[in-house]
Each structure stands twice: as structure tokens, then as C-alpha cells.
Design a protein that fits this description.
196 residues
Length: 196
């Protein structure tokens, strides 16, 4: 349809590009995505995770230590996957996920063991920059299968899913490589594994 100046003044046409229309479209997309996830579509769940993981990560990070965030984020998505059928209003999925994230963070503090005391004979760290370089050198000495995912995770701050997306590895492979790599890294740095 040729634009003779009237379409921008007619509410029907002007409304298609308004912020309200974009919000309606986004909510419709959320509804469709939730329905696909509820029907067992694995591709939809991966998309669901990509779309909402930054928000969930932020909600959890606001409540717990950085080193505990990723595990809790995974718990949030596992819980969401298991209970997605209980979501009454599919367009409200963001708020629902945020509520699950807040609850999981609160549960974490209820079940967390008391924090460990630092040993009194801990050597003084006078130059954090050289310490970071030493750790990076240790990371580089690890087998390649562990080195890249660990550097992407620890240095670049990428999530396991982002690493999987960008490296064409499966999320399970990334998770396994990160776990095994962290065990090796702790051993090489002389850090004892925390007892669970």
C-alpha cells in the first residue's frame, strides 16, 4: 500500500509499530514458547533458556555469592521445566521464573553450611595482578578439552549455555568439561574440594 501520508496518521497503522504493540507481540511469542516447552520441544527449551537465563542469573546474583549462582540458575530451569504445566498464564512466564529464582536463592541460604574459616597461615597476596597471571598460566596448562570452556567461563564470564552455543558443543559436554576441568584446576592450584 503506497504511503500518501495518511497511514502514519491513522491509529490502525500507527499502532503496529508502537511500544505497546511490540509488548503484545513479545507476550504472544512468550505464550507460544511456553506452549512448545510444555509439549516437550527440546529446541524450544533451549530457546527458553537463552531468552530468560540472563534475567534469572541477575535475580539470583542479587541474592547469592557469584560462585553459587550458576548452580542455582540450573536449579531454577530444572524446576521450571518440571512444573511448566502449572503456569496458568503463559504470558507471565518472566515473573514466574523470577519468583522461582528468588525462592531457590532463599532455599540455598537455608540449606547452606556455615562458611569456612580462612586459615591463619594464608600467605599474603600483595599483587593480585600477578596472581591472576599465575592462575591463567595454570589454566593454559590444562588439557585443551578443559582449557577453553574454563577460560570462557572464568575469564569471559560466559554461561555454560553460551559456551555451548558458541562452540557447537552440547550443553552436557560443556557441563562435564567444566566440572572435570575445575577439579584439575583446583588440584593444580592446591585448593581442596569443598565437602558437600
Amino acid at each position: 500500500m503506497p504511503d500518501n501520508g495518511l497511514t502514519s496518521r491513522l491509529p490502525f497503522f500507527a499502532g503496529q509499530n508502537s511500544p505497546g504493540a511490540a509488548a503484545v507481540r513479545a507476550k504472544e511469542q512468550d505464550v507460544q514458547l511456553v506452549e512448545r516447552v510444555a509439549n516437550g520441544d527440546e529446541t524450544a527449551f533451549a530457546e527458553f533458556y537463552r531468552k530468560f537465563s540472563p534475567m534469572v542469573h541477575g535475580v539470583v546474583l542479587a541474592r547469592v555469592r557469584r560462585e553459587d549462582v550458576d548452580d542455582i540458575v540450573q536449579e531454577v530451569f530444572l524446576s521450571a521445566f518440571r512444573s511448566i504445566h502449572s503456569l496458568r498464564e503463559h504470558g507471565a512466564v518472566g515473573g514466574w521464573l523470577a519468583m522461582i529464582a528468588r525462592n531457590k536463592a532463599a532455599e540455598f541460604y537455608r540449606r547452606e553450611k556455615p562458611s569456612e574459616e580462612l586459615p591463619e597461615d594464608l600467605p599474603e597476596r600483595t599483587n593480585p595482578r600477578s596472581e591472576a597471571h599465575e592462575i591463567l598460566d595454570v589454566l593454559r596448562s590444562l588439557p585443551e578439552a578443559y582449557r577453553e570452556p574454563l577460560i570462557l567461563r572464568l575469564v569471559e564470564g560466559m554461561s555454560g549455555q553460551e559456551i555451548a552455543d558458541r562452540t557447537n558443543l552440547t550443553p552436557e559436554s560443556v557441563r562435564v568439561n567444566l566440572c572435570r576441568g575445575m577439579v584439575l584446576l583446583r588440584q593444580k592450584l592446591g585448593i581442596e574440594e569443598r565437602k558437600r
